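Table 4 source record.
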Amino acid sequence: MVFALMEKKEKHLLSGPIVFDRLSEEVLPMSNHETPLDFKSESISGSELRSRCFHTPIPPIIKRRMDMKGNPSNGNTQEFEHSFSQTDPSGIKFDFREGLRVMIPANLSGKYLVKAWDNSTGFVHFETFLKPGESLTSRKKWYIPWAFSVSKDGKEIMSHVLSLKDKEVAIHYPSGGIGDTLAWFSYARAFQETHDCKLTCCIDPRYHELLKINDYASFEAEDAWKNTPYYAVYHMGIFSPDNDNDKQPMDFRFTGLHHNAGNILGLPNRDDPPEVWSPTIKLPTKPYVCIAARASARCKEWLNPAGWPTLISWIKDKGYDVYDIDRDFLRDDDIIPYGTIDMTGEIPLTERAAFIKGASAFIGVSSGLTWLAWCCKVPTVIISGWTLPHTEFRTMYRVINTSVCHGCWNDLREYFDQ
Protein backbone atom coordinates (compact mmCIF):
# COMPACT_ATOMS: atom_id res chain seq x y z
CA MET A 1 0.00 0.00 0.00
CA VAL A 2 1.28 3.48 -0.83
CA PHE A 3 0.00 6.18 1.48
CA ALA A 4 -0.25 9.79 0.32
CA LEU A 5 2.75 11.39 2.00
CA MET A 6 2.92 13.79 -0.92
CA GLU A 7 -0.61 14.86 -1.10
CA LYS A 8 0.07 16.16 -3.50
CA LYS A 9 31.84 21.72 -19.39
CA GLU A 10 31.87 22.18 -22.05
CA LYS A 11 33.08 18.72 -22.94
CA HIS A 12 36.72 19.00 -23.96
CA LEU A 13 37.76 17.31 -27.19
CA LEU A 14 41.37 17.15 -26.07
CA SER A 15 42.68 13.80 -24.91
CA GLY A 16 46.44 13.79 -25.38
CA PRO A 17 48.32 10.63 -24.50
CA ILE A 18 50.75 10.11 -21.66
CA VAL A 19 53.90 8.42 -22.96
CA PHE A 20 56.36 6.37 -20.89
CA ASP A 21 59.96 6.06 -22.02
CA ARG A 22 62.53 3.55 -20.82
CA LEU A 23 65.35 6.08 -20.94
CA SER A 24 64.59 8.95 -18.59
CA GLU A 25 62.20 10.67 -16.19
CA GLU A 26 61.88 13.83 -18.28
CA VAL A 27 58.63 15.71 -18.75
CA LEU A 28 58.48 17.35 -22.17
CA PRO A 29 55.78 19.32 -24.01
CA MET A 30 54.14 17.75 -27.02
CA SER A 31 55.31 18.94 -30.38
CA ASN A 32 52.68 20.26 -32.79
CA HIS A 33 52.52 17.06 -34.80
CA GLU A 34 51.60 15.20 -31.61
CA THR A 35 48.54 17.31 -30.85
CA PRO A 36 45.33 15.31 -30.34
CA LEU A 37 43.62 17.58 -32.89
CA ASP A 38 43.57 16.14 -36.40
CA PHE A 39 41.68 18.28 -38.92
CA LYS A 40 41.57 19.98 -42.28
CA SER A 41 40.09 23.45 -42.76
CA GLU A 42 40.20 26.13 -45.41
CA SER A 43 38.97 28.86 -43.04
CA ILE A 44 41.36 28.58 -40.11
CA SER A 45 44.99 27.59 -39.75
CA GLY A 46 46.13 24.78 -37.50
CA SER A 47 48.19 27.10 -35.29
CA GLU A 48 45.23 29.45 -34.82
CA LEU A 49 42.88 26.59 -33.92
CA ARG A 50 45.38 25.23 -31.43
CA SER A 51 45.79 28.63 -29.82
CA ARG A 52 42.01 28.86 -29.42
CA CYS A 53 41.52 25.34 -28.07
CA PHE A 54 44.53 24.88 -25.80
CA HIS A 55 43.43 27.13 -22.96
CA THR A 56 45.37 24.80 -20.66
CA PRO A 57 48.99 23.69 -21.24
CA ILE A 58 49.56 21.18 -24.02
CA PRO A 59 49.36 17.67 -22.56
CA PRO A 60 52.87 16.52 -21.51
CA ILE A 61 54.88 13.53 -22.53
CA ILE A 62 56.10 11.76 -19.41
CA LYS A 63 59.08 9.48 -20.03
CA ARG A 64 59.88 6.55 -17.83
CA ARG A 65 61.86 3.32 -18.02
CA MET A 66 60.02 0.08 -18.87
CA ASP A 67 61.45 -3.44 -18.61
CA MET A 68 61.30 -6.17 -21.23
CA LYS A 69 57.91 -7.39 -19.94
CA GLY A 70 56.34 -3.97 -20.08
CA ASN A 71 56.36 -3.39 -16.32
CA PRO A 72 57.76 -0.22 -14.75
CA SER A 73 61.46 -0.87 -14.24
CA ASN A 74 61.36 0.63 -10.74
CA GLY A 75 59.36 -2.44 -9.70
CA ASN A 76 56.36 -0.46 -8.46
CA THR A 77 53.48 -2.60 -9.70
CA GLN A 78 50.98 -0.35 -7.91
CA GLU A 79 51.45 2.29 -10.61
CA PHE A 80 49.01 2.18 -13.47
CA GLU A 81 51.45 0.52 -15.90
CA HIS A 82 50.20 -2.95 -14.96
CA SER A 83 51.24 -5.75 -17.28
CA PHE A 84 49.55 -5.48 -20.64
CA SER A 85 46.98 -8.19 -21.26
CA GLN A 86 47.04 -8.33 -25.08
CA THR A 87 49.93 -9.08 -27.43
CA ASP A 88 49.76 -8.65 -31.20
CA PRO A 89 51.67 -11.10 -33.44
CA SER A 90 54.06 -8.21 -34.12
CA GLY A 91 54.98 -8.24 -30.43
CA ILE A 92 53.28 -4.92 -29.69
CA LYS A 93 51.34 -5.00 -26.43
CA PHE A 94 48.06 -3.24 -25.65
CA ASP A 95 44.84 -3.33 -23.66
CA PHE A 96 42.00 -1.11 -22.46
CA ARG A 97 42.38 -1.46 -18.71
CA GLU A 98 42.77 2.25 -17.99
CA GLY A 99 41.85 3.81 -21.24
CA LEU A 100 43.78 2.73 -24.32
CA ARG A 101 47.31 1.53 -23.53
CA VAL A 102 49.99 0.59 -26.09
CA MET A 103 53.60 -0.50 -25.58
CA ILE A 104 56.43 -1.07 -28.03
CA PRO A 105 58.62 -3.89 -26.64
CA ALA A 106 62.22 -3.02 -25.86
CA ASN A 107 63.55 -5.76 -28.14
CA LEU A 108 62.17 -4.08 -31.28
CA SER A 109 63.95 -1.35 -33.19
CA GLY A 110 63.02 1.84 -35.01
CA LYS A 111 60.39 4.50 -34.44
CA TYR A 112 56.67 3.72 -34.36
CA LEU A 113 53.73 6.02 -35.10
CA VAL A 114 50.65 5.30 -32.93
CA LYS A 115 47.36 6.79 -34.06
CA ALA A 116 44.15 6.38 -32.04
CA TRP A 117 40.63 7.46 -32.87
CA ASP A 118 36.98 7.02 -31.96
CA ASN A 119 35.77 4.27 -34.26
CA SER A 120 32.16 5.51 -34.16
CA THR A 121 32.89 9.12 -35.14
CA GLY A 122 36.34 9.05 -36.70
CA PHE A 123 37.58 11.71 -34.30
CA VAL A 124 41.34 11.34 -33.86
CA HIS A 125 42.28 11.51 -30.19
CA PHE A 126 46.02 11.45 -30.70
CA GLU A 127 48.87 10.60 -33.03
CA THR A 128 52.38 10.27 -31.58
CA PHE A 129 55.68 8.43 -31.97
CA LEU A 130 56.96 5.73 -29.65
CA LYS A 131 60.41 4.18 -29.42
CA PRO A 132 61.08 0.60 -28.31
CA GLY A 133 60.54 0.37 -24.57
CA GLU A 134 58.02 3.20 -24.50
CA SER A 135 54.33 2.94 -23.69
CA LEU A 136 51.38 5.29 -23.72
CA THR A 137 47.99 5.51 -22.14
CA SER A 138 45.14 7.75 -23.17
CA ARG A 139 44.00 10.37 -20.71
CA LYS A 140 40.36 9.39 -21.27
CA LYS A 141 39.50 6.42 -19.04
CA TRP A 142 35.79 6.07 -19.80
CA TYR A 143 34.28 3.91 -22.53
CA ILE A 144 35.29 5.05 -26.01
CA PRO A 145 34.94 2.71 -29.03
CA TRP A 146 38.68 2.89 -29.61
CA ALA A 147 40.52 1.99 -32.78
CA PHE A 148 44.25 2.41 -33.21
CA SER A 149 47.06 1.62 -35.59
CA VAL A 150 50.82 1.33 -35.28
CA SER A 151 53.04 2.16 -38.26
CA LYS A 152 56.77 2.08 -38.95
CA ASP A 153 58.40 3.93 -41.83
CA GLY A 154 54.98 4.63 -43.34
CA LYS A 155 53.91 0.95 -43.28
CA GLU A 156 51.16 -0.23 -40.93
CA ILE A 157 52.45 -2.88 -38.54
CA MET A 158 49.17 -3.57 -36.77
CA SER A 159 45.71 -2.16 -36.09
CA HIS A 160 42.98 -3.04 -33.66
CA VAL A 161 39.34 -2.08 -33.09
CA LEU A 162 37.96 -2.46 -29.58
CA SER A 163 35.34 -5.20 -29.35
CA LEU A 164 34.12 -6.42 -25.98
CA LYS A 165 32.10 -9.35 -27.34
CA ASP A 166 33.12 -12.59 -25.59
CA LYS A 167 36.04 -10.77 -23.95
CA GLU A 168 36.97 -10.83 -20.27
CA VAL A 169 35.93 -7.37 -19.09
CA ALA A 170 35.81 -5.90 -15.59
CA ILE A 171 34.00 -3.03 -13.94
CA HIS A 172 35.87 -1.72 -10.92
CA TYR A 173 33.78 -0.39 -8.03
CA PRO A 174 35.94 1.48 -5.49
CA SER A 175 35.13 1.07 -1.82
CA GLY A 176 32.54 3.59 -0.79
CA GLY A 177 29.08 3.96 0.64
CA ILE A 178 26.22 1.55 0.10
CA GLY A 179 24.36 4.03 -2.09
CA ASP A 180 27.34 4.69 -4.36
CA THR A 181 27.90 0.99 -4.99
CA LEU A 182 24.27 0.10 -5.66
CA ALA A 183 23.76 3.17 -7.84
CA TRP A 184 26.77 2.36 -10.04
CA PHE A 185 25.99 -1.36 -10.14
CA SER A 186 22.56 -0.61 -11.63
CA TYR A 187 24.23 -0.24 -15.05
CA ALA A 188 26.11 -3.56 -14.99
CA ARG A 189 23.35 -5.61 -16.64
CA ALA A 190 22.83 -3.14 -19.48
CA PHE A 191 26.58 -3.02 -20.12
CA GLN A 192 26.88 -6.81 -20.27
CA GLU A 193 23.86 -7.18 -22.52
CA THR A 194 24.99 -4.37 -24.83
CA HIS A 195 28.45 -5.83 -25.42
CA ASP A 196 27.83 -9.56 -24.79
CA CYS A 197 31.04 -9.69 -22.76
CA LYS A 198 32.21 -11.96 -19.95
CA LEU A 199 31.70 -9.47 -17.16
CA THR A 200 33.39 -9.45 -13.78
CA CYS A 201 32.48 -6.90 -11.13
CA CYS A 202 35.44 -6.09 -8.89
CA ILE A 203 33.62 -4.95 -5.79
CA ASP A 204 33.91 -4.96 -2.01
CA PRO A 205 33.21 -8.57 -0.83
CA ARG A 206 30.56 -7.34 1.61
CA TYR A 207 28.28 -6.80 -1.41
CA HIS A 208 28.87 -10.20 -3.04
CA GLU A 209 26.11 -12.06 -1.21
CA LEU A 210 23.65 -9.19 -1.71
CA LEU A 211 24.26 -9.05 -5.48
CA LYS A 212 25.00 -12.71 -6.29
CA ILE A 213 21.49 -13.15 -7.72
CA ASN A 214 22.64 -11.14 -10.75
CA ASP A 215 24.07 -14.11 -12.64
CA TYR A 216 25.07 -12.14 -15.75
CA ALA A 217 28.28 -11.18 -13.91
CA SER A 218 30.85 -12.85 -11.70
CA PHE A 219 32.23 -11.14 -8.61
CA GLU A 220 35.79 -10.65 -7.43
CA ALA A 221 37.51 -8.53 -4.80
CA GLU A 222 37.84 -4.83 -5.49
CA ASP A 223 41.55 -4.97 -6.40
CA ALA A 224 41.33 -8.11 -8.56
CA TRP A 225 41.39 -6.02 -11.76
CA LYS A 226 45.03 -5.10 -11.07
CA ASN A 227 46.33 -8.67 -11.25
CA THR A 228 43.92 -10.26 -13.74
CA PRO A 229 44.57 -9.89 -17.50
CA TYR A 230 41.23 -8.36 -18.44
CA TYR A 231 40.89 -7.08 -21.99
CA ALA A 232 39.24 -3.90 -20.68
CA VAL A 233 38.46 -2.38 -17.28
CA TYR A 234 36.12 0.53 -16.54
CA HIS A 235 36.35 2.44 -13.28
CA MET A 236 33.26 3.70 -11.49
CA GLY A 237 33.19 6.79 -9.31
CA ILE A 238 32.38 10.46 -9.10
CA PHE A 239 35.52 12.43 -9.84
CA SER A 240 36.16 15.98 -8.73
CA PRO A 241 37.89 17.97 -9.90
CA ASP A 242 37.95 16.46 -13.37
CA ASN A 243 38.02 19.64 -15.42
CA ASP A 244 39.22 17.91 -18.59
CA ASN A 245 36.68 15.08 -18.27
CA ASP A 246 39.40 12.45 -18.28
CA LYS A 247 37.61 10.06 -15.92
CA GLN A 248 33.99 10.81 -16.78
CA PRO A 249 32.42 12.28 -19.93
CA MET A 250 30.77 15.15 -18.06
CA ASP A 251 30.50 16.52 -14.55
CA PHE A 252 28.63 14.08 -12.30
CA ARG A 253 26.68 16.96 -10.76
CA PHE A 254 24.95 17.36 -14.11
CA THR A 255 24.22 13.68 -14.57
CA GLY A 256 23.39 12.27 -11.14
CA LEU A 257 24.97 9.53 -9.08
CA HIS A 258 23.88 6.42 -10.98
CA HIS A 259 23.73 8.05 -14.42
CA ASN A 260 27.40 8.95 -14.07
CA ALA A 261 28.12 5.22 -14.17
CA GLY A 262 26.08 4.98 -17.37
CA ASN A 263 28.06 7.83 -18.89
CA ILE A 264 31.38 6.19 -18.00
CA LEU A 265 30.14 2.94 -19.57
CA GLY A 266 28.79 4.66 -22.69
CA LEU A 267 25.15 3.81 -21.97
CA PRO A 268 21.95 5.90 -22.15
CA ASN A 269 20.25 6.91 -18.90
CA ARG A 270 18.05 4.31 -17.26
CA ASP A 271 16.36 3.81 -13.90
CA ASP A 272 16.45 0.04 -13.49
CA PRO A 273 17.39 -1.12 -9.98
CA PRO A 274 19.52 -4.26 -9.76
CA GLU A 275 18.20 -7.37 -8.06
CA VAL A 276 19.28 -7.92 -4.46
CA TRP A 277 19.24 -11.29 -2.72
CA SER A 278 17.74 -11.63 0.73
CA PRO A 279 17.12 -14.60 3.06
CA THR A 280 13.77 -15.61 4.48
CA ILE A 281 13.35 -13.98 7.87
CA LYS A 282 10.51 -13.59 10.35
CA LEU A 283 8.63 -10.36 9.65
CA PRO A 284 6.15 -8.41 11.80
CA THR A 285 2.53 -9.41 11.35
CA LYS A 286 1.30 -5.80 11.55
CA PRO A 287 1.85 -3.56 8.49
CA TYR A 288 4.92 -1.42 8.90
CA VAL A 289 6.96 1.34 7.37
CA CYS A 290 10.77 1.57 7.43
CA ILE A 291 12.59 4.85 7.89
CA ALA A 292 16.30 5.75 7.81
CA ALA A 293 16.99 9.24 9.16
CA ARG A 294 20.79 9.05 9.08
CA ALA A 295 23.18 9.77 6.23
CA SER A 296 26.94 9.99 5.71
CA ALA A 297 26.83 13.76 6.21
CA ARG A 298 24.58 15.93 8.35
CA CYS A 299 23.78 18.20 5.40
CA LYS A 300 21.93 15.27 3.79
CA GLU A 301 19.57 14.84 6.72
CA TRP A 302 16.14 16.27 7.50
CA LEU A 303 17.02 18.69 10.30
CA ASN A 304 13.57 20.16 10.96
CA PRO A 305 13.21 19.33 14.69
CA ALA A 306 9.49 18.68 14.34
CA GLY A 307 9.76 16.87 11.01
CA TRP A 308 10.30 13.21 11.85
CA PRO A 309 8.17 13.12 15.04
CA THR A 310 5.23 14.72 13.23
CA LEU A 311 5.52 12.37 10.25
CA ILE A 312 5.91 9.28 12.43
CA SER A 313 2.86 10.21 14.48
CA TRP A 314 0.85 10.67 11.28
CA ILE A 315 1.90 7.29 9.91
CA LYS A 316 1.06 5.50 13.16
CA ASP A 317 -2.37 7.12 13.13
CA LYS A 318 -2.91 5.39 9.77
CA GLY A 319 -2.38 2.00 11.42
CA TYR A 320 1.28 1.31 10.66
CA ASP A 321 4.22 0.59 12.92
CA VAL A 322 7.38 2.56 12.10
CA TYR A 323 10.81 0.92 12.32
CA ASP A 324 14.08 2.88 12.25
CA ILE A 325 16.65 0.72 10.44
CA ASP A 326 19.66 3.04 10.66
CA ARG A 327 22.95 1.52 11.77
CA ASP A 328 23.43 3.81 14.79
CA PHE A 329 20.91 4.36 17.56
CA LEU A 330 23.04 7.19 19.02
CA ARG A 331 25.30 9.48 17.03
CA ASP A 332 26.93 12.38 18.82
CA ASP A 333 24.00 13.81 20.80
CA ASP A 334 21.29 12.52 18.46
CA ILE A 335 19.15 9.45 18.94
CA ILE A 336 16.75 7.96 16.40
CA PRO A 337 13.44 9.82 15.91
CA TYR A 338 10.91 9.58 18.71
CA GLY A 339 8.07 7.13 18.18
CA THR A 340 9.94 4.55 16.12
CA ILE A 341 10.68 0.93 16.92
CA ASP A 342 14.44 0.45 17.23
CA MET A 343 15.89 -1.82 14.51
CA THR A 344 19.35 -0.23 14.49
CA GLY A 345 22.63 -2.14 14.63
CA GLU A 346 25.28 -3.81 12.49
CA ILE A 347 22.83 -6.02 10.60
CA PRO A 348 23.92 -7.67 7.30
CA LEU A 349 22.67 -5.89 4.19
CA THR A 350 20.90 -9.05 3.03
CA GLU A 351 18.79 -9.08 6.20
CA ARG A 352 18.17 -5.36 5.87
CA ALA A 353 16.93 -6.02 2.35
CA ALA A 354 14.60 -8.77 3.55
CA PHE A 355 13.07 -6.47 6.16
CA ILE A 356 12.65 -3.60 3.69
CA LYS A 357 10.98 -5.92 1.15
CA GLY A 358 8.30 -6.71 3.72
CA ALA A 359 7.51 -3.06 4.39
CA SER A 360 4.59 -1.11 2.98
CA ALA A 361 6.95 1.78 2.20
CA PHE A 362 10.35 3.22 2.97
CA ILE A 363 11.12 6.86 3.88
CA GLY A 364 14.66 8.15 3.90
CA VAL A 365 17.10 10.88 2.97
CA SER A 366 19.86 10.84 0.34
CA SER A 367 21.58 7.78 1.81
CA GLY A 368 22.65 4.21 1.11
CA LEU A 369 19.60 2.60 2.70
CA THR A 370 17.38 4.67 0.40
CA TRP A 371 19.21 3.20 -2.60
CA LEU A 372 18.80 -0.27 -1.05
CA ALA A 373 15.05 0.34 -0.74
CA TRP A 374 14.99 1.24 -4.45
CA CYS A 375 16.60 -2.12 -5.18
CA CYS A 376 14.02 -3.82 -2.98
CA LYS A 377 11.29 -2.30 -5.18
CA VAL A 378 9.17 -0.91 -2.36
CA PRO A 379 7.50 2.54 -2.61
CA THR A 380 10.31 4.89 -1.61
CA VAL A 381 10.05 8.47 -0.37
CA ILE A 382 13.18 10.67 -0.57
CA ILE A 383 13.36 13.73 1.66
CA SER A 384 16.25 15.78 0.33
CA GLY A 385 16.93 19.41 -0.42
CA TRP A 386 20.69 18.94 -0.44
CA THR A 387 20.53 17.15 -3.80
CA LEU A 388 18.47 17.93 -6.86
CA PRO A 389 16.01 15.20 -7.91
CA HIS A 390 18.13 13.94 -10.84
CA THR A 391 20.92 13.01 -8.39
CA GLU A 392 18.97 9.96 -7.24
CA PHE A 393 16.68 7.48 -8.97
CA ARG A 394 13.31 8.57 -10.29
CA THR A 395 10.53 8.28 -7.72
CA MET A 396 6.98 9.61 -7.49
CA TYR A 397 7.58 10.45 -3.85
CA ARG A 398 10.13 13.24 -3.53
CA VAL A 399 10.05 15.89 -0.79
CA ILE A 400 12.03 19.02 -1.67
CA ASN A 401 11.47 22.70 -0.91
CA THR A 402 12.68 24.70 -3.89
CA SER A 403 11.65 28.04 -2.35
CA VAL A 404 14.68 27.99 -0.03
CA CYS A 405 18.39 27.23 -0.50
CA HIS A 406 18.62 23.78 -2.08
CA GLY A 407 20.66 21.62 -4.43
CA CYS A 408 24.07 22.58 -3.01
CA TRP A 409 25.52 19.18 -3.98
CA ASN A 410 24.79 19.96 -7.63
CA ASP A 411 26.13 23.53 -7.54
CA LEU A 412 28.97 23.66 -10.06
CA ARG A 413 30.40 26.74 -8.36
CA GLU A 414 31.22 24.79 -5.21
CA TYR A 415 33.14 21.67 -4.21
CA PHE A 416 31.71 19.56 -1.44
CA ASP A 417 34.01 19.10 1.59
CA GLN A 418 32.54 16.51 3.91
